[in-house]
């Protein structure tokens, strides 16, 4: 790994400003966008698990990100979760998410904005993690370049609300499924032979 010095206070201020800018643009854009085609699936699955402890709708992604998105909805007694519908009994996440978001009297836009707030926070933490990981692995310049591309590029901030599940999958791959071991490391070389140890004999 590349050796890096500790951040000076002006660098901490710059990092905080970049993260706040990312959070602001993501939060602002969340109020301007309608639901992505698959966003309702993940939100319905996460909220259903939060309310019932049942994973039946989380059929194609781990439930953590959806569960986090649903946390701001916890305690809202006005929300209707239509578990009496056949779509719930069948575990049909497509039909059930339509019922939950659009056909049960819930305020769909309010649900989306609140859920996106939690995901914006998660996204901000991931951008910070990207900065520190790139800085530690690839060096000082790579850390700031990664922060610039991920945190300040407006398209990243707005599209984050659409592709948050896919980012979560990337993080899981890196940190729990061996992806970190497969990433290249600058400055990593094969160990030099120890001259004090006898060389191995070559068999005929």
Summary tags:
elongated, 204 residues, mainly alpha, single chain
Entry summary:
This protein is mostly helical and 204 residues long. Helices cover 61% and strands 0% of the residues. It has helices at residues 9-30, 39-52, 64-70, 86-89, 93-102, 108-138, 140-152, 154-159, 164-176, 179-182.
Structure description:
By secondary structure, the chain is mostly helical. The chain is 61% helix and 0% strand. It is elongated, with a radius of gyration of 23 Å. It starts with 8 loop residues before the first helix and ends in a 22-residue tail after the last helix.
User: What value does the Rg take, in angstroms?
Assistant: 23 Å
Q: How much helix is in the residues?
A: 55-70%
String of helices and strands = HHHHHHHHHH
Number of strands: 0
Q: Please state the structural category.
A: mainly alpha
Domain count: the total is 1
Major sheet, described briefly? none
**Low-pLDDT stretches:** 186-190
Distance between the termini: 39 Å
Percentage beta strand: under 5%
Average pLDDT confidence is 79
Write down the overall geometry.
Answer: elongated
User: Count of helices?
Assistant: 10
């Amino acid at each position: 790994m590349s050796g890096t010095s500790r951040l000076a206070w002006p660098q901490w201020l710059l990092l905080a400003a970049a993260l706040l800018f990312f959070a602001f643009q993501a939060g602002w854009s969340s109020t301007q966008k309608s639901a992505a085609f698959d966003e309702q699936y993940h939100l319905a699955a996460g909220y259903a698990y939060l309310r019932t402890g049942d994973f039946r709708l989380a059929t194609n992604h781990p439930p953590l990100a959806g569960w986090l998105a649903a946390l701001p909805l916890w305690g809202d007694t006005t929300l209707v979760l239509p578990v009496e519908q056949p779509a719930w009994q069948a575990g049909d996440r497509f039909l059930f998410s339509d019922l939950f978001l659009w056909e049960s009297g819930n305020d769909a836009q309010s649900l989306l904005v609140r859920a996106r707030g939690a995901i914006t926070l998660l996204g901000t933490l991931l951008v910070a993690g990207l900065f520190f990981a790139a800085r530690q692995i690839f060096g000082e310049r790579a850390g700031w370049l990664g922060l610039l591309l991920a945190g300040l590029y407006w398209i990243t901030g707005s599209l984050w609300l659409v592709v948050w599940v896919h980012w979560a999958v990337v993080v899981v791959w890196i940190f729990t499924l061996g992806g970190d071991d497969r990433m290249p490391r600058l400055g990593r070389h094969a160990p030099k032979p120890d001259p004090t140890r006898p060389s191995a004999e070559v068999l005929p």
